Amino acid sequence: MRKIQTLIVVAGLLFSLTASAETKQTPEVTNKIEPLPRDLEIQLALSALPRHLRENATVYVLNPAKGFEVARKGTNEFHAFVARTGDDTFKGSWLLTQYRSDILYPISFDKAGSKAQMRVFFDAAEMQAKGTPPGELKKIMQDRYKTGFYKAPERAGISYMLSPVLRTYVSPEENDRVTTINLPHVMYYAPDISNEDIGGGKPGGMDPFVILHGHHGYIIQPLGVTERAAINRLFRDHFSPNCGDLAG
Prior knowledge:
This protein has one domain. 31% of the residues lie in helices and 19% in strands. The protein has helices at 6-23, 38-46, 51-54, 111-115, 117-129, 134-147, 225-238; strands at residues 58-63, 67-72, 79-83, 105-109, 158-161, 166-169, 178-181, 185-189, 209-211, 218-222. The strands form three sheets. Strands 2-1-3-4 form a four-stranded mixed β-sheet, sandwiched between helices. A four-stranded antiparallel β-sheet has the order 5-8-10-9, with no helix packed on it. A hairpin with an 8-residue loop joins strand 6 and strand 7. The protein is globular, with a radius of gyration of 17 Å. It starts with 5 loop residues before the first helix and ends in a 10-residue tail after the last helix.
């Protein structure tokens, strides 16, 4: 079985999703997300985690008709899935006029994050599946943030995003521009912490920085050049679109 670099595989997937988004703009598909091949989605979800956590993590896949559902129950209290309409969608005052089909990023949460941050992703996916219009969903979620419906994590914790490729919003607090990047990183829950509080750098750089300011903010710690190269090598050797084993 021939192995293909993750970056190439997912870049091709993102290209197909983007093309699909551009050619399907009718009302019938406004609320729907194109499903991923199940085995590929599981692999992508696991790519968010460090290798030693993958085997026993709980993994979810997206059912476009219902929302996220468990694909494999784990035992280590880490949870992984591929975000499609994420929490960054609900930042900023820009209008959410349609659900993007080209947003895709593997993300994982520990126990504390699964009770707090992860609920936003799952509630959004369920409402989207039920046909909630994009603008209405963004208003609902922003109102929930304002009223404290979504609580901050109960303790310090970590969210891994170690996949070598992701596509999402660049500066969601300012606009809806998206990009595809190679930025394996870890995120620490940082309720009500500003970038100035930690002397943070610029987003996308090598220094820690804060995103999604507020009760549900994160400190982003990008991996170093050596660590990033090691992840790219790992996925070059162990990832394939034909479901090579990511958990081993």
